[in-house]
Amino acid sequence: MIRPLIFSVCIASFIVWLNLLCFIDLSEAEESIPMTVNATGEQIDCWGIVMRAAKSIIKKLRSCTKDVKANSTSMKEMSEKLGCVMKCVLHRVKFVNEDYMVSDETLSTFIHQYFPNEKMVNYLMKVIRKECLEGNATKLDPSEDNCSSYGKFAVCMQSDLGDILNNPEYCIPKAKDKEFSFG
C-alpha cells in the first residue's frame, strides 16, 4: 500500500517539476555557462551541467508534450500521459534506441553528451546500470498504451542524477552569491 503511494507522490512531484520547466524561457539564458573545475580536476560546477542539459532537454520536453497531447491542467490526465512524454523525450535525447529500448551503448552516449568528467561518467554508468537498467530497462514495453514503464525509468534516472549533482565528491556546490538569471 505504501509503495504505490510513494510512487504516486514521486510522479506528482515530477509532473509539477515538468510543468514548471515547460514555462521557463531559456532563449535568453547564457549561451556559454562556464565549466568550473577544481584544482585536482575532479569536481565540476554541476549547476553549469544542469543548465546546459536543461536547455537541450526542455525543448524536447515541450515538443514531446505537444506530440503526446499532454497539455492538460488535469493532474490525473497529465499523470496518465507522463510515461509517454518521457518515452518521447528519452528517444529524442537518444537515451533509447529506435526500438525504444535502453542499452549500455545508449546510456554511454547520453551520459557522455552531458557529463564531461570521466569520474562522473564512470560513477553514473555504474549506478544507473545497476539501479535503473537492471531494475527497469528489461521491463520497458514499447507497446504499452500508457507507457508507464518509461515513467518509472525516468523517475529512477532523475533520482540517480540528483544524487550525483548533490554529492560534493563530484560537484562543487553552487555559490550562494552566484545566481543564474533567465533574462
TrEMBL record:
Signal peptide from the UniProt entry: 1-29
Pfam families in alphabetical order: PBP_GOBP
InterPro entries: PBP/GOBP, PBP_GOBP_sf
Keywords annotated in UniProt: Signal
Any one GO molecular-function label of the UniProt entry: odorant binding
Keyword rRNA-binding: no
Name of this chain's protein: Uncharacterized protein
Organism, scientific name: Orchesella cincta (Springtail)
